[in-house]
Amino acid sequence: LGAEDEALELFESWASVAPLLKKLPPREREILYLRFVANETQSKIAEKLGISQMHVSRLLAKTLASLRESVGSFDA
Prior knowledge:
mainly alpha; 86% helix
């Protein structure tokens, strides 16, 4: 039962975030994909996109903060 609960929680989390991800600019979606799905480092992402690692870091922070804020507004 514990695994089922975790799977349900993961699905609910994905269901609440998926529509928000679709609204992101393509570059931000790509950075999130590379970081959290492809498990690339910020340095590797920067190299692939031709930008600095610091810029990748800033974009990740901004995008994640925006997603947290949007998800938080659903919970309110």
